Amino acid sequence: MEAGFRSTQWQELTFAVVGLGLIGGSYAKALRQLQAKRIIGVERNPVVLRQAVELGIIDEALTEAGPELAQADVLICAIYPEAIAGFIKSNVQFLSPHVLITDVAGIKGDMIRRVQEALLPGMEFISGHPMAGRQSSGLAMADAAIFHNANYIVVPEAGNTPQAVAWLEQFALALGCARTVRVTPEEHDRTIAFTSNLPHVTAVALMDSSSYNEKTRYFVAGSFRDGTRVADINPELWCSLFLANKEKVADEIDKYMEQLELWRNALRAGDGETLKALMRTAAARRKELY
Fold this sequence. Notes:
The protein is built from 10 helices and 9 strands. The chain is α/β, with parallel strands linked by helices. The strands form 2 sheets. It has a 6-stranded parallel β-sheet.
């Protein structure tokens, strides 16, 4: 791929996907549906790598980065956020001088800056985040359909070219996403603390409550089931995400506790008007979302 040129003829492009878990595997499956010219899978777990070959979602299997990556026009990093900059820095010598790199990291922090510092002239990294996934993890759960009608967050920085930003947005739509949204890294992490990190904290806290006992399962209906769905969580991944965004997550917990305090005070005071006002506000906002 020549510098400054980003083809949206997917069958002309070779992609490398680093990490073949739920999200990386879903990218590989989606790329196969888009008839990408070639798909290279990089996965340190040989069992997962073999499964990807057997599924026919990659054309070349690598347990570690090597010269083969020079074939890739586009490199998708679907590994833990804290590992992305290190991977690029350690393997930049293997990459095409005009490679376009993106990621799927749920927390940006200073990762974007560190990746850009590791790049050689002509290479470009533009960060992204598909708002797609499932509560379970692993290649077995991968599905190209997770992108359908999802939102795709694009996090451009000053060094990104308009061509790269436009390319990533077109790629997101080709995956099946309904829309793309551009934000700064700070906006991304602050909003994710509210819409993703906090709901996961809440679900885990509900399941860890001292009210849980052997009879709880017989009292569960839709609201509890929906509210705790994401408590079936990948501890390694989510611990790293929470800690990488710890101040913003803690701030959102404080705001949530303020709301719970309003409820507790109104209940103990028998203040039905306040309770109804809280519910009306929530209902109106929920309708705005969908």
